[in-house]
Amino acid sequence: MNTDGLIIRENSTGEQNKTVTVLTRDYGIVRAYVYGAKKIGSRTGAATQLFAFSEFGFAEKRGSYIIEAAKPKEIFFNLRNDVKKIALAQYFAELTECLAPEKENAEDYLKLILNSLMLLMNEKRDEKLIKSVFELSILSLSGYMPNIVACEECGKYEDEYMFFDTQNGNIFCSECGKFGMKVPMSVISAVRYIVLSDRQKIFNFNLNESSLLALSDLTEKYVLSILQRKFKTLDFYHVL
Fold first, then answer.
1. pTM listed for this prediction
2. Helix 83-99 and helix 209-227: axis angle, to 10°?
């Protein structure tokens, strides 16, 4: 089978071979062997390194996949010049591996992580904004879109500040809120924008620094609460 995909994990298997996890456009998550990838002059070496976006040719043998051909399209080389950026990119990859489907179309997931990596590499948006948009968008794609239209109790649409319930993804106005994260209205508006806008425009907004910090904290806590697990790559990112 032939399809485009992004390498989101690689593991060595001996001196010359490795296994990779690929987020593919047409088949979702695919795990495959790459023989001879670490040989000098390997035809698949560059195209199967971590964060290489490539055109792949897979062959299935005895229930396993082998990458027989790979042609790189974008390798995001400049990400490797910044330890914090590559750490954040690895978190995106780990979160993608956790949530993206297998054996079905994953074009929206692929577009999301490719756009996020490109913006991160080119410094087109604040790092915290990219992280927040990625976290909230991939959760929404996976069926965990928060219910942020109005207060869960009284239906109030706007308030000076609101409460976001990270366990259930609901919001409450200042009068009805008894638990959750207290955030300014600007953060709730940003959450609404991310989950309700056209996917091509989800990065096109701005917040002041304090609101951006609050948004980043909210989306991260929502991820950890909904998925009920830790991410080693996220922990590493925070210690940098």
1. 0.95
2. 40
